[in-house]
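Notes from the 1:1 (GR / supervisor)

We went over the backlog. Supervisor wanted to see one worked example end to end before approving the batch request, so GR pasted a single chain during the call. The sequence is below; no edits were made to it. Supervisor asked that the structure be written out right there so they could see what the output format looks like.
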Amino acid sequence: AKLYYSPILGERNAAMRILFDNVRLLLQQYAIISKGNFSFQILNPDPLSDIEDRAINDGLQPFPIIDNNTNAYFGMTITDAVDKKRVIPFFPLERAHLLEQDITKHIYLLNHQKKTLGIITSLPMFDDFVKNVAVDKWEIIRQLEDFYKLKKIDNNNPDLSGIDALLIAHPQKLSPTLEQN
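Structure output shown during the call:
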């Protein structure tokens, strides 16, 4: 992992410094627990440096420091042995309580292929229309999309092939074909 951090963020905001310390400590714990399978480095992307160019190329989100006309960075890239890459463009303060979950999710997804999860439901969990009114995707679907390829299974699409796991939520008015599957 490469943790990009501009110290000016911590100098101007103590909460950002604390968040950086928490990220660093968590990465140290991962390195110890992994027994050599995980390592990290901390990079300071000074303005107009090669490290800043690398941060931009890696997809990190610049944070503008207006009074001195520069950008600051606080994000991370995680790569594996075959150069698959996951990027956390910026660590926002409002997700500080989810830090371990966010980093662990990226490490997990780097090393695991998404399996296909079939979902049978009569509830408007996906971006659906109910009586001509648009209904937003449910949060559980958004969360599941991080870890699975989702396949909605209903009376119009009763095919269960290629499914690794099946989630059934409030099945109502299923066709006989789907009930038999």
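Supervisor's comment: The CA atoms of residues 159 and 172 lie 17 Å apart.
Batch request approved.
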